[in-house]
Amino acid sequence: MDWMVRVEQLSKEFTLHTQGGIHLRVLEGFDLTVGAGELVLLRGPSGAGKSTLLRLLYGNYRAKGGAIWVRHGGHLVDMVSAGPQLVLDVRRRTMGYVSQFLRVIPRVPALRIVMEPLRALGVAEEEARQKAARLLDQLRVPERLWGLSPTTFSGGEQQRINLARSFIATPPVMLLDEPTASLDPVNRQLVVDLINQTRQAGAAMVAIAHDGALLDTPVTRIVEMHSYQGAIVANDLPQSCP
Amino acid sequence: MQAPSPILEVTGLTRYYGRRVGCEAVQFTLWPGEVLGIVGESGSGKTTLLNCVSGRLEPSGGTVLYHSRWGLVDLYQTPEANRRLLMRTEIGLVRQSAREGLRMRVSAGANIGENLMANGQRCYGRIREQALSWLERVEIDPERIDDLPTSFSGGMLQRLQIARNLVTQPRIVFMDEPTSGLDVSVQAKLLDLLRCLVSELDLSVVLVTHDLAVARLLANRLLVMRRGQVIESGLTDQVLDDPQHPYTQLLVSSILQN
C-alpha cells in the first residue's frame, strides 16, 4: 500500500505562560500511517488530543518533536520541520482540512468562498464556478444562498460551505474535524457520501466524528486515543466497529 | 517545489532614536505574492520597522535588499535618486490616516493621476481613463472623480488612497493600519477589496496592524514585535493558534472571542 502520511514519534506539549507556566503534555511518541484510499477514525474522550493531532498534521500547531511525512507531489515533506512557504504549498496542493468552524470575511459570497481554493491553483474563473455550483448542489445548499455571505447562514449551512470549500480541489490528503457535527440526518448522509466518494477516489483521510456518523461507512481503521496521566497512549486497532 | 527568489530581504535592521530602541536586529524575507503581517502593541516598533523597510527612514544599521524589476538594490546604499525612483514606481505606501497619504486640496482624479504623471505619462485622456477605472475598482462612484477628497467619507478616503497607490502597479505595498479608524462594516468591505487586489495584481504586502482579526484574514505570515524586536514569527494560523512566546500568548488571549 502507498502511504500518504506517516507520523513518527510525534510529541506535543503546550506551555501556558499566561496560566502560571504549566506544561501540558498532549502527545508523546505517537505513530500513525495513513494510506491512499484509507479513512482513519480518531476516537477517544474530549481532551485526548484528537484535534491537536489533526492540527499538527496540518502544520497549524508546532510539534515538540518527531516527524510528519507527507507525500507532496513527487517529494516527501516533513510538516514538522518544513518552512512556512513549503507548508503553505502542501496545504494548497496536497492537504485539505475541514475545521469545526467557518472563518470568512463577512462580505464575500458563499460561491466565491467555495471557488477560492481552485482559483488559488490557477483554475479559470468559469470552471471553478461550475465546479463550486455542482458541489453546492450536491450538498443541497439552496441556490438562493450562493450569492450571500455565509455569516448569516445557519450552523448546518455554514458547515456545508466549509466542507465544499475543503473538498472542491480534491486534495489527496483530507483532515476532518467533526465534519458532520451540526447537520441533520439528511444532510449528514450527503456529507458521508461525499467523504466516501472522495476516499474511493484515492484520498487518504483522518477524521474525528463524535456523532458516530462515519461508523457506518467503510472506515479502514479506528485509532483509540486515551488521555493517560497527561500523556497520550494510542493503539491502532484493526477494523472492528463496536 | 521550486523556490522563486524573494522580493525583499531584511537583515539586522536596527533603528535607534537617540538611546531609545525603535527596532533592533530585525530579520525577515518577503516572497512574491505574500502578505506579511507585523503585529504587536503600540510602541513596539511596528511603524519604525515599516518606515525603514519602505525607504522612508534611514536605519542605524542593517540592510534592506530589494529585488527590483531592474536588479538587486540595497535600499540605503543606492543613490538617493534611485531610491526615490523605486519608491515612485515599484513601492506603494498606504498610511493609517488617508489624509496624510492623499492631497486633500486636489480632486480625487488628480490624486490618482498625479502618480502616473510622476512616472512620465502625459496624455490627459489616458490618465483620466485610468483614474476612472481605478475609482470603479475601489468602489467609488466614478462620477465623484472631480470632487475634492474633503467631501469623502473615511472609508472612501482609504479606498482612494489605495487606488492612488496601486495605479502605478507597484510590486510591493506597505500598509500601516489600513483598516483602523473605520467602522466595522466598512472594515470588512476594505478587507475584501484588499484581498482581491492582492491576489489579482500578485502584490507582495507588508501589513502593520494591531488588530489580530485583520491579520488573520489578510496575512499569510506574521511577525510579532515587542520592544523593537521580533519575538515570534510563523504562519499566521500557527502564531495565533499555537503561540509560543509568553507575550504572544498574552496578546492572543487578550482578544475578545466572538
Show the helix and strand layout.
The complex is a heterodimer of chains A (242) and B (258).
Chain A: E1 3-16, E2 22-35, E3 39-43, H1 50-57, E4 65-72, E5 75-78, H2 84-93, E6 95-98, H3 110-120, H4 125-138, H5 155-167, E7 173-177, H6 185-200, E8 204-208, E9 221-228, E10 231-237
Parallel strand pairs in A: 3-8, 3-9, 6-7, 7-8
Antiparallel strand pairs in A: 1-2, 1-4, 4-5, 9-10
Helix pairs in contact in A: 3-4, 3-5
Chain B: E1 8-17, E2 20-30, E3 35-39, H1 46-53, E4 61-68, E5 71-74, H2 80-89, E6 91-94, H3 98-101, H4 108-118, H5 124-137, H6 154-166, E7 172-176, H7 184-201, E8 204-208, H8 212-218, E9 221-226, E10 229-235, H9 236-241, H10 246-253
Parallel strand pairs in B: 3-8, 3-9, 6-7, 7-8
Antiparallel strand pairs in B: 1-2, 1-4, 4-5, 9-10
Tell me about this structure.
The complex is a heterodimer of chains A (242) and B (258). Chain A is of the alpha/beta class. Chain A has a domain at 1-94 and 213-242: Rossmann fold, CATH 3.40.50.300. Chain A has helices at 50-57, 84-93, 110-120, 125-138, 155-167, 185-200, and strands at residues 3-16, 22-35, 39-43, 65-72, 75-78, 95-98, 173-177, 204-208, 221-228, 231-237. A six-stranded mixed β-sheet of chain A has the order 6-7-8-3-9-10, with helices on both faces. A four-stranded antiparallel β-sheet of chain A has the order 2-1-4-5, covered by helices on one side. Chain A starts with a strand and ends in a 5-residue tail after the last strand. By secondary structure, chain B is an alpha/beta fold. Chain B has helices at 46-53, 80-89, 98-101, 108-118, 124-137, 154-166, 184-201, 212-218, 236-241, 246-253, and strands spanning 8-17, 20-30, 35-39, 61-68, 71-74, 91-94, 172-176, 204-208, 221-226, 229-235. In chain B, strands 6-7-8-3-9-10 form a six-stranded mixed β-sheet, with helices on both faces. Chain B has a four-stranded antiparallel β-sheet with strand order 2-1-4-5, covered by helices on one side. The longest helix of chain B is centred in the last third of the chain and has 18 residues, at 184-201. The interface between A and B is medium-sized, with 26 and 26 residues.
